[in-house]
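Example complex used in Figure S2.
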Amino acid sequence: MKETRTILSTTNLTVGYKDKKGIKPVLSNLNLSLEKGKLTCLLGTNGAGKSTLMRTIGGIQKPLKGEVFMQGKPIRSIDAKSLSKQLSLVLTDRIAPGNLTVYALVSLGRFPYTSWLGTLSQKDKDIIFMAMEATGILEFANKHIGELSDGERQKVMIARTLAQDTEVIFLDEPTAHLDLPNRMEIFHLLRALAVESDKAILLTTHELDMALANADHLWLINQNQTIDSGLPEDLVLNGLLEEAFQRDQLQFDYELGTFKRTSNQSKTKVRLEGDVILKRWTRSALERAGYEVTPDTSDLEIKISGSLKAPLWHLNHNDTTYKTIQELLIQLNNQ
Ligand SMILES: Nc1ncnc2c1ncn2[C@@H]1O[C@H](COP(=O)(O)OP(=O)(O)OP(=O)(O)O)[C@@H](O)[C@H]1O
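Predicted assembly (335 residues):
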């Protein structure tokens, strides 16, 4: 029999809030499964319910309806200590105490495994060291959390989760305060951890490009307060990604893999010919300047020649060649 890769699942799950005024469902009828060895990204607009869902399947918020299963067992039936050996959760709204050192905070990840005295064994210490090494925070092991930048603190929180060494890891916006190289590093690290250590990692993010490039699987919150799940590329090609973020004057560019603003104003059409990369960046500048790039024959045509490092743009209107896109745009604006 084929081994099931699902480690966490939900059946008819509805998540949301309840108060004196009544019930407020945020996401309904969710039948999801999270697989081992995969990095899953949870995407959705602001307020769509990402944190609410993460808290609910992490066992710290009660579902309004339905059930969450961990290794086939209802999560509500698992005691807190056992659950903390199976699942770790990094929430952005949990601010780490500033007076702890980095090492002390990462060590807290070992709490499910230590005795009530909290004494760390050599194995605990080795795991703490590996978690700090993997996240690149060894150099500030003795600093206090309060002395760190937001990005550094983010890495410390991830290291604490790694030290907890659970099969399931949830992270709410783990790259929120990070610059581009660090964002790429964290996504790479989390994916490697999922694949190499066979963990199921779920993270929320607003970074569409990072999610599309790195996620094995997406959970995409749609406009019907439910979730579409699948391979990122499938959700792009079947239009569900565009639908989930649908707004007036916003359109998904299927070639560039990003959203762009549209307008109803009629635009001058222009046809581009030449190297794929040079066309891509020329198109980007032309569209920002209000032109519509078309594959059809057009009155206005630009031929791009030369090499990537020394490109040339040739404009059919005046039979002149330009060395930069800026020069080309100045000429087009003056026509
Ligand atoms: N404690 C609460 N009580 C009642 N409603 C809440 C509570 N917390 C959040 N909500 C509401 O639940 C909905 C989902 O919120 P949630 O924080 O889960 O969204 P999110 O997708 O994580 O948003 P963001 O991308 O802005 O972080 C929102 O409408 C929000 O106003």
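The two ends are 70 Å apart (CA to CA). Residues 17, 24, 26, 44, 46-52 surround adenosine-5'-triphosphate (CB under 6 Å).
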